[in-house]
């Protein structure tokens, strides 16, 4: 996507606010730029994981530290329901990445659980867990997946910068309303919210039900059957969220609102 910005919005690196002009970029250009990034990701994951991922299938990304409050396995709360969604609404595949702290045994167990579920689902839903997570893998994922998944237990999410990185690459989020997503989510325009701001809706069962509902009724139908609306959402992610949730704006706010006081 960077090459597209360099061509269409030449000064975006010096002034990130200029990304708002992405609203004028042709939808086909955005789609083609994303397909190139997705191809690089799929080729890499298939090479290192022998995953058999398909570029034509909607691809969810989940890359963050493996620890219990991140609820890395929430999407598997009801495996049969997830399998049914993939069978009747459209195929999906999921790419995971992220390490656990060396002393976080529960985090390590979450990774093992994902591998066990991967074997349980067999070929119904392709799952890959990319090893040796680093900045380069993070770059590939936040630019190459179709949807960014984030499922922390509120109010534990400090910020959610991975979702911001995805947005600047035109990747919408499907996320719990915590951290940046409370501000960044414009439902159906920059992505979708899981659950609500009501603390009573934070249980794994209720959040998982909301996640499944959005996948079944909103995400998968839009990706496969309303491609224009999907790419329009990608463009809005860049123009609205990418132009605001960035370090350039943050540092400017610090200077004006704090350091200059």
Compute the separation of the termini in Å. Answer: 38 Å
Strand content: 5-15%
What structural class is derived from the secondary structure elements? alpha/beta
Query: Tell me about the biggest sheet?
Result: 6 strands, parallel
CATH homologous group name: Glycogen Phosphorylase B
Q: Rg to the nearest angstrom? A: 18 Å
What is the correct CATH architecture? 3-Layer(aba) Sandwich
**Oligomeric category:** single chain
Number of domains: 1
The dominant shape is globular
Structural features, described:
The protein is an alpha/beta fold and 261 residues long. The chain has one domain: Rossmann fold (3-Layer(aba) Sandwich), CATH 3.40.50.2000. Helices cover 50% and strands 11% of the residues. Strand 4, helix 6 and strand 5 form a beta-alpha-beta unit. Helix 2 packs across helix 5, helix 2 crosses helix 9 and helix 5 packs across helix 6. The longest helix has 23 residues. The protein is globular and about 50 Å long.
Secondary structure: elements and pairs:
Elements lengths: L1 H7 L18 H23 L8 E6 L15 H10 L3 E6 L7 H17 L4 E5 L4 H10 L2 E4 L10 H8 L4 E4 L4 H4 L6 E4 L9 H22 L1 H16 L4 H13 L2
Quick description:
This protein is of the alpha/beta class.
Structural descriptors:
50% helix, six-stranded parallel beta sheet, 10 helices, alpha/beta, Rossmann fold
């Amino acid at each position: 996507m960077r090459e597209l910005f360099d061509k269409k919005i030449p000064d975006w690196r010096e002034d990130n606010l200029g990304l708002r002009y992405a609203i004028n970029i042709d939808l086909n250009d955005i789609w083609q730029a994303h397909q190139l990034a997705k191809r690089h990701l799929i080729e890499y994951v298939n090479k290192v994981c022998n995953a058999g991922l398909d570029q034509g299938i909607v691809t969810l990304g989940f890359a963050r530290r493996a620890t219990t409050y991140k609820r890395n396995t929430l999407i598997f709360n009801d495996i049969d329901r997830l399998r049914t969604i993939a069978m009747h609404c459209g195929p999906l595949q999921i790419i995971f990445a992220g390490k656990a702290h060396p002393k976080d045994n529960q985090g390590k167990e979450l990774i093992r659980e994902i591998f066990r579920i991967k074997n349980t689902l067999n070929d119904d839903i392709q799952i890959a867990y990319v090893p040796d997570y680093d900045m380069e893998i993070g770059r590939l994922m936040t630019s190459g997946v179709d949807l960014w998944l984030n499922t922390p237990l509120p109010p534990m999410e400090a910020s959610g910068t991975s979702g911001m990185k995805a947005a600047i690459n035109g990747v919408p989020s499907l996320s719990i309303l915590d951290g940046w997503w409370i501000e960044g989510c414009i439902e159906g325009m920059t992505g979708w919210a899981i659950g609500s701001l009501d603390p009573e809706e934070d249980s794994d069962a209720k959040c998982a039900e909301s996640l499944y509902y959005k996948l079944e009724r909103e995400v998968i139908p839009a990706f496969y059957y309303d491609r224009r609306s999907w790419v329009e959402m990608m463009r809005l992610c860049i123009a609205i969220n990418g132009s605001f949730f960035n370090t350039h704006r943050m540092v400017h706010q610090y200077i004006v609102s704090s350091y200059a006081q």
